[in-house]
Amino acid sequence: MRFPIIPIDATASTVLALLAALPLAISVFIVASGGGPARYFASQSWISLALSVGLPVLVTLLLVYFLYGGYRSSVTITEDALEFSVPVYGRSIPLDTIEPASARVVNMRTEREVQLGLRTNGLGSLGYSLGWFRLAGGGKALVALTDRSSVASLPLSDGTTVLVSLEDPAAFIQALQAARAN
């Protein structure tokens, strides 16, 4: 059973698009102010060319991937796993590691125990949080958040919490509990 993650909003899309364009703009400025690519080829400074053009292109492609994934992410409940399909941080979580009795719907705008703390590895943009975060109340969390008022909180047996924004988190948790019971 597939449950789409709430798509990112216009603000988050704009911020990511601007962040994606920034490295390319910097790259163009560096190359143009330094005499252009001909200067790099003439001096055989391949490292400079790779750093000033290649690295910004890679960063831009990664940010575009995050932007695209903000509209196409989902969680799918299979017979034996929860497929977490998000950019870069996607994974298969065995159902037997999820504690369904502790799974619940949370509003992260009002509930303090599930507030995000330090981002340890991921993307934290206005209206879009993806990756690994510390929780303010302790512990770590794998998150895909686009709407903090409609979040399914799934504690795992290793102490990790999965936080994901869904249109109907209660229906998701019921389906998860039914799949875990089978």
Task: Explain this structure.
With 182 residues, the protein is of the alpha+beta class. The chain has two domains: 2-72; 99-181, no CATH class. It contains four helices and ten strands. A six-stranded mixed β-sheet has the order 5-9-10-8-7-6. A four-stranded antiparallel β-sheet has the order 1-2-3-4, covered by helices on one side. Helix 1 (10-33) packs antiparallel against helix 3. The radius of gyration is 20 Å and the shape is elongated. The mean pLDDT is 87.
Number of discrete helical segments: 4
Structural class: alpha+beta
Give the strand order of the largest sheet, numbering strands 1, 2, ... along the chain. 5-9-10-8-7-6
Kindly estimate the percentage of residues that lie in beta strands according to DSSP: 25-35%
Helical fraction: 25-40%
Question: Mind describing the biggest β-sheet?
Answer: 6 strands, mixed
Q: Please give the oligomerization state of what you see.
A: single chain
Number of self-contained structural domains: 2
Number of strands: 10
Mean pLDDT, rounded to whole units? 87
Distance between the termini: 14 Å
Report the radius of gyration as a whole number of Å: 20 Å
pLDDT < 50 runs, ≥5 residues: none
Global morphology: elongated
Order of helices and strands: EHHHEEEEEEEEEH
Give the helix/strand layout.
Layout: E1 2-4, H1 10-33, H2 37-43, H3 46-72, E2 74-77, E3 81-85, E4 91-94, E5 104-106, E6 116-125, E7 128-135, E8 140-145, E9 151-155, E10 161-165, H4 169-181
Parallel strand pairs: 8-10
Antiparallel strand pairs: 1-2, 2-3, 3-4, 5-9, 6-7, 7-8, 9-10
